[in-house]
Amino acid sequence: xxxxxxxxxxxxxxxxxxxxxxxxxxxxxxxxxxxxxxxxxxxxxxxxxxxxxxxxxxxxxxxxxxxxxxxxxxxxxxxxxxxxxxxxxxxxxxxxxxxxxxxxxxxxxxxxxxxxxxxxxxxxxxxxxxxxxxxxxxxxxxxxxxxxxxxxxxxxxxxxxxxxxxxxxxxxxxxxxxxxxxxxxxxxxxxxxxxxxxxxxxxxxxxxxxxxxxxxxxxxxxxxxxxxxxxxxxxxxxxxxxxxxx
Amino acid sequence: xxxxxxxxxxxxxxxxxxxxxxxxxxxxxxxxxxxxxxxxxxxxxxxxxxxxxxxxxxxxxxxxxxxxxxxxxxxxxxxxxxxxxxxxxxxxxxxxxxxxxxxxxxxxxxxxxxxxxxxxxxxxxxxxxxxxxxxxxxxxxxxxxxxxxxxxxxxxxxxxxxxxxxxxxxxxxxxxxxxxxxxxxxxxxxxxxxxxxxxxxxxxxxxxxxxxxxxxxxxxxxxxxxxxxxxxxxxxxxxxxxxxxxxxxxxxxxxxxxxxxxxxxxxxxxxxxxxxxxxxxxxxxxxxxxxxxxxxx
Lengths: 246, 297
Description:
The complex is a heterodimer of chains A (about 250) and B (about 300). With about 250 residues, chain A is α/β, with parallel strands linked by helices.
């Protein structure tokens, strides 16, 4: 069984980031980068499957600039067998990422893809579903429990009203939600040991053709517009005005 | 010629769907997957299906693709189900997608929150069709009038994924991570019974979930699963009421994408007032009963 885990390098989700003064993006100077936390949950899940069945091969992949080697090394330390860096400095939207992943999936033919439901920087929640659609594979998004069989997988997924259980024939794609697991802590020896694991660099199959483009990043309004009200009546009035109370 | 299809995963989304399409100022149709919707919302056509329960995403998106073919914009109210299905539809159409639009500057330019709602991105749509999920708050109410033609869709749906079971949330309160309203309390709640009656009571009055700070959980006032924060649950409500909460970074990291934070605290210097949209300096034991009385619950 081969499990592919796409990961994304994102700004530390707990760092305070601000838009650049010209609005062209956000200021990442002095900010740490991490594996997208939802992708780390995906990696953890894949590695737990491998721990139960050692014949499992876990491959981590990212499409990013060379700096993302740091995140792939961590993925190897968590327990991936191999990492693939599709090296590109281009800007990708989710369809572009899905198309690039599609090329690799068609080549390495994994039985299962597990990835984060969304990245904590752009919060799009798109790439997994788009990839599953292009592959014609069934999908289970927002997974909170995964039970893998030899030819099918049973996934408990969170829904707007509760949970549901889907059974999917393999190959299939799963996106992870927070409750699926708690990723392990990786101590330094693990990261050092992982340096001997294979990390393959390759060029993108195609140049991305953007279908959407971010043209401006600005601070969220409202946060600074906070105000104190004097009475509960005024509070209820302000909430009704904003549609927050019936 | 631009034309919008709004996919309604539940009938209750009809008004918001029409409001969104009217903001784009283009002719639109509604597709009601379940149930019946009003015919005076300005849609030319209303498609209906006979689903009792929406099929899993793979089959549903495939069916939607056939209906969506003639449209330039295919939209739906943001929900977990919409994200599941609509992103797959975008994949099938090989088109771009805008998730969680909060405003439309034009039919090809939208604003949406990024980095957990701390910043707003303007997204330009470079190719048509485009799939959009939107948050209703930014699009007002629709003008009503006219009469839509209703057309039944006869779909035969095939999903590779099979739904084995559905589990509705236990208890009467919605799940914390999905609740539209969250009422949270801190250590000033004294004990478990007080927490339940004051915080739980307001949560019930608002149809919301109860949450707590780590300090409240650590001191046994609130159960562990109610903890909101960096090491607890991440919530994304429309309304977050923080009562007797100082507003530590650790706690605030658990509140993502919220629309409105209300702070109720005796101490006007607590950092929660910096993060809150609306704040009231008051003892929560006075403020919460007064609030419940005013909202008639």
